[in-house]
Design goal:
157 residues, 20% helix, single chain
């Protein structure tokens, strides 16, 4: 499959230097990190949440961390729960299930990113399937999240 079409279109409209990295099929970000011989903190994951009004929020954080839902709820003042992946198929129809790229803007989704992403100079994230990652500089990744809020809302796994 390679790169998801909406992500490819977004990267075309917001050009930053990046590389695509192919790897064997994996089922999780941590498996991807092992497969590519990377520290899990270099991989970025998207956790899609849903609030009490059925609005989605994409939380973006390192694969080595987990969303602290209580902290995030307190910071943004909304009740949040994990979104059901099956419900997200339509919005992320160009992606394999569980391989959502962490660029909410490409999908018209409100996004919030964790400040811990700034501890790494380079980042990798799923391109829309379980065999391809996008590699880029952290500053370029953050630039792709234009308009997104950021704060500390994660905890170590």
């Amino acid at each position: 499959m390679g790169m998801a079409m909406k992500l490819a279109n977004y990267l075309t409209a917001h050009p930053v230097p990046f590389d695509l990295v192919a790897h064997p099929h994996t089922r999780s970000s941590l498996q991807s990190a092992r497969s590519m011989e990377l520290a899990p903190g270099c991989l970025v994951k998207a956790v899609v949440l849903e609030d009490e009004n059925d609005r989605y929020l994409m939380a973006v954080l390192p694969a080595s961390r987990r969303v602290n839902l209580g902290e995030l709820r307190n910071c943004i003042g909304r009740m949040l729960r994990l979104a059901d992946e099956v419900e997200l198929r339509e919005r992320f129809g160009d992606c394999d299930l569980g391989a959502v790229p962490p660029i909410g803007n490409a999908y018209g989704m409100e996004t919030i990113w964790d400040d811990s992403l700034m501890t790494r100079p380079d980042l990798y994230f799923e391109a829309g399937d379980h065999e391809t990652h996008v590699y880029l500089k952290t500053r370029d990744f953050v630039g792709l999240l234009e308009g997104a809020r950021h704060m500390e809302f994660s905890a170590p796994m």
